[in-house]
Each structure stands twice: as C-alpha cells, then as structure tokens.
Amino acid sequence: MLGCDSYTAESGTPTVKKAILDRWVQIPEIPYIVATTALAEGFDYPYVRLVLNIDEPESLVIFAPESGRAGRDGQCAYSMVILPATWEPQVAGDATMDVPGEKSYRDDLSL
C-alpha cells in the first residue's frame, strides 16, 4: 500500500531482517521504511530525517530512542507524533525536557 518495506520483530530471520534494512539504506528511490519499536534501538543509520509515530508512544523510555533515530548525522530532522482527536494527556503539567543550548521545536497541529 505504501510502496516501501516494513520491519517488525516478526519480519523473519536475522538474514531477512538484514536484507530489509540493506535494501532501505541502499536504494535511494525508496527512502522510506515502516517499522515498529523493533527498529527503535541499536540502528544508527545517520540520514533519517523523519520519525513518525502514529498514536501515543508506549512510554518515554521507548519514545526517546525511537525519536533519537532522526538526525544522527547532526542535520535537521523531525520526530512527529500523530494523535487522535480524542487524545487526552496522561501527565499532569508540562512534561518538556529541554536541553540548554539545544533547539527544540514543538507545535500542535490540528487536522
């Protein structure tokens, strides 16, 4: 449907999973991959420009490495979370954790 590979814990043997990642990295005409949290940690391809989460991340512990896949080469990159219109915050107060001297852009987008 999306015209790109997908990567999940159920994607197959380690050889099959490696082939999926190699194809994604080596074919510039298909610069997208759909992945679950199976690709959240330990994968350091430097040219990821966008990490897109559909629905609320399971936890900040999982979200941090997922969003950290973007911009590993130091270039501008984005991490977006698309939430349903019915979403309600689960944390009271401001949960931001800005790092002094670093840029962080946040915005709410209503569709």
Automatic annotation (TrEMBL):
Protein origin, superkingdom: Eukaryota
Residue spans crossing the bilayer: none
InterPro entries according to UniProt: Helicase_C-like, P-loop_NTPase
Entries under SUPFAM superfamilies matching the protein: P-loop containing nucleoside triphosphate hydrolases
A matching Pfam family: Helicase_C
Domain Helicase C-terminal stretches: 1-111
The protein's name: Helicase C-terminal domain-containing protein
Organism: Friedmanniomyces endolithicus
